[in-house]
Amino acid sequence: MSETGAPARRPYRVGYAPGAYDLFHIGHLNILRHARSQCDYLVAGVVSDEMAELAKGRRPMIPLVERLEIVRSVKYVDAAFVETVPDKVETWKQVRFDVLFKGDDWRGTAKGDKLEADFAAVGVDVVYFPYTVHTSSTQLRRALDALAGPALTEPLAPVTAELR
């Protein structure tokens, strides 16, 4: 709260935190928590199954509709948006955020440098948060694959049966 009793203004008005959010874990929660602390309104971008496959060479284990519902339910997220194009500036034209949040594993990389240059051209900041090294969806997927063998290499089917 400010001295007048009004909520304190955060550095940014609208923030955007994109990700696949597959096998949701503490690293995802940390990014969303840190992002929300820096903006008045946080939009989480959940990449479509097709976009995730294009970027990572494999489809997420958790289908888009379920990943979207999980992310939408996190208390730090004000809205969730399905990303269907690889160009983040195209996404910005639809969402109109002031800042994009990424894990610091992107900092200093070719893709991070391109992201920063593209967004500098439209007046959007890129803010990096610490990447949670000890937990990642890739590590979780490898552990599941090792435990289950080839049966879990395909995405999980959505649950459609009602519980009795």
How would you portray this structure in words?
With 164 residues, the protein is α/β, with parallel strands linked by helices. It is built from 6 helices and 5 strands. Strand 1, helix 1 and strand 2 form a beta-alpha-beta unit. The radius of gyration is 17 Å and the shape is globular. The termini are far apart. The C terminus is likely disordered.
Show the helix and strand layout.
Elements: E1 12-19, H1 26-37, E2 39-47, H2 49-56, H3 64-72, E3 79-83, H4 88-95, E4 99-103, H5 110-120, E5 125-129, H6 137-148
Low-confidence stretches: 160-164
The secondary-structure element order is EHEHHEHEHEH
| Mean of residue pLDDT values | 85
Helix content: 25-40%
Number of helices: 6
Class by helix and strand content? alpha/beta
Rg from C-alpha positions?
A: 17 Å
Topology, number of strands: 5
- Overall spatial form: globular
Amino- and carboxy-terminal Cα gap: 47 Å
Sheet bearing the most strands, described? 5 strands, parallel
How much β-strand is present in the residues? 15-25%
Strand order of the largest sheet: 3-2-1-4-5
Keywords for this structure?
5-stranded parallel sheet, disordered C terminus, alpha/beta, 6 helices, 164 residues
Describe this structure in a few short sentences.
The protein is of the alpha/beta class. It has helices spanning 26-37, 49-56, 64-72, 88-95, 110-120, 137-148, and strands spanning 12-19, 39-47, 79-83, 99-103, 125-129.
